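Need tokens for this chain, all 58 residues.
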Amino acid sequence: MLIDWFTVVAQMVNFIILMALLKHFLYDRIIKAMDEREEKIHSRLLKAEALQQEAAQE
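Here are the structure tokens for all 58 residues:
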């Protein structure tokens, strides 16, 4: 079984191009969405803790 080096190199080049395009168009948006979600979850946890402490005091 012979390895077709042209195909191997072409696949590597295509993969690198794909990664560059994904990073350019999607990476920043995904990171921003994840950060926003993390902030939302953190604020909800803080609110839940405050409500729990308020309920414990009553």
